[in-house]
Write a structure and sequence with these properties.
Blueprint lengths: L10 H15 L1 H23 L11 H32 L4 H6 L1 H6 L5 H33 L3 H4 L3 H28 L2 H28 L2 H13 L2 H12 L4 H7 L13 H23 L5
Helix pairs in contact: 1-6, 2-3, 2-6, 3-6, 3-8, 3-9, 3-12, 6-8, 6-13, 8-9, 8-11, 8-13, 9-10
Amino acid sequence: MWFCTPKGGIPIVAIFTSTLQEAIRKKTLIVMGVVTGLYLIFWTLMVNYFPNSSITHGMTLDQFRLFAIQMVSKMGFQFSAMLIALLTIMLGSGTISTEMETGLIQGVLSRPIRRYEYVLGKFFGLVLIACAFATILYMLILVIGAVFGLSTFTSLTFSQIFMGWVLYLLLPIAILCLTVYGSVSMKAVPNGILMIFIYILGNVGGMVEMIGQFLNRNSIIGTGIFISLISPFQTIYNTMERVIVPNSQIAGNVMSGASMSGSGEPASVWMFVYIGLYMIGFLFLAIHRFSRKDIS
């Protein structure tokens, strides 16, 4: 049996450790590592070529270079956040449901462990893996950008880097809270598909809100906000982007303060209070639902 609780041991730590070992053995991390490596190579080529292009599309050379630097910087974080979200969903969608389907969970719960310890052990194990992967990717993007002398990276202060990193980590943690609840409630494949849909829905919400502001239609803005409440993940990313790649001069004017996926006004403190309650709420629901689930 992969799981055991030694005498005097802490069950939640044993679940946490076994979750780490199980995730490391899976090919998911290897596949996502390869995909991430290919993406970093592609992004490095873009960083090297795009800002130094001789085709300026009517701008002065300095204006185009500033615009290009802003664009490739935003692209680096935008698609890396998508990779982190995809990895998180792939790891978390079947973390509990797979063990229920295979019957492995019966052997685990026959030992001296409470059900909430099982859920929390799974959750924190996945959090560590997702955050470690996100931290490595975050630092690689910053290092590559600094090596190629992108002003958006070389001008960053420590507080910007730290706050951007915290928000970057908040994204997979928030996704995991919802994904673990889904893993308790449904099978791995439907859960994964639903989580991907909800993540994409957040991007749509940002676009809808931005369109509503452009058209000055409160009803459209309200629809975008409602979608963002269902899927607040893009709000987290947009805030991180505003911290780490603040718009300026020609790039800011051209992009109108929006990220590549569309965004409205900066998120308020109350929105992040809601996000905190959203995360705690779904984690609590996962524990509550699992505690009442018939495991037989």
